[in-house]
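Input for the complex:
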Amino acid sequence: MELVFLWPGKTRNRHLQAVLDDYLQRLQPFCRARIVETPEARGIRESSAERILETEARGLEKYLKGGYIICLSDKGTMMTSEELARFIQKQAMSSARKLIFLVGGFLGLAPRLMEKVNFRLSLSPMTFSHELTRVVLLEQVYRAMNLIKGYSYPK
Amino acid sequence: MELVFLWPGKTRNRHLQAVLDDYLQRLQPFCRARIVETPEARGIRESSAERILETEARGLEKYLKGGYIICLSDKGTMMTSEELARFIQKQAMSSARKLIFLVGGFLGLAPRLMEKVNFRLSLSPMTFSHELTRVVLLEQVYRAMNLIKGYSYPK
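Predicted:
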């Protein structure tokens, strides 16, 4: 199985980036895992939300081929950590050799990208900053891989 | 209003500690906010869960007086960020001058402490590591303070 974590732009908070790097490292014994940062829209005023989302969509869609796409969305399905583990395991055992976790930028994702995704996942009823969302996602996927392998629960 | 974030033991992941420090700093213009780290149980085998929880409870309970206690619990109530903001605002306007956010260690909290709390809050149906829980909590409280003041939403 291959895991791709896909989002527009770098993680500007260097401490959160360090936590992401750490989880990515700890995922390697389980599977191929990488973070792909596509170009983010710059120099466009926030009032032009559509233009920002479209600019970012063009970067993201290049990486959306040939995998099962799970996108994070506040309108998505909430799960327990155990349910997420079973969900990932099921996908890994079915056709999907590659799981793509897609996280929008600070304005979210273009609607036309949302139509391409296979599953919408919500981490919480609360709204997390988009950079913290990345960290929580990687922690949950790392936890899921441990659960799948039957390793003791990382607390 | 005064905010106290209370938990046993230091945050060992220095990157997560740096993120906590940052949120604590950003909370200062809104209110007095501090983190209190009480002694954590050491040298006790994990199989003696009750002894660990009781040892930690003795440290925590010293700081549980004179405030409204919100404890994080996987059996707690889930809220949106807006609902949390309204909840904090309501407590701030009522008798509670001090809000105490209590987060258990890696084994959770002693049952006798759970009985003392005023409200149980759940951040997600998912299980986060206890150190990541601290970060998500501070981000949500910081977000709540911004929402209460009507500041633009930190993304």
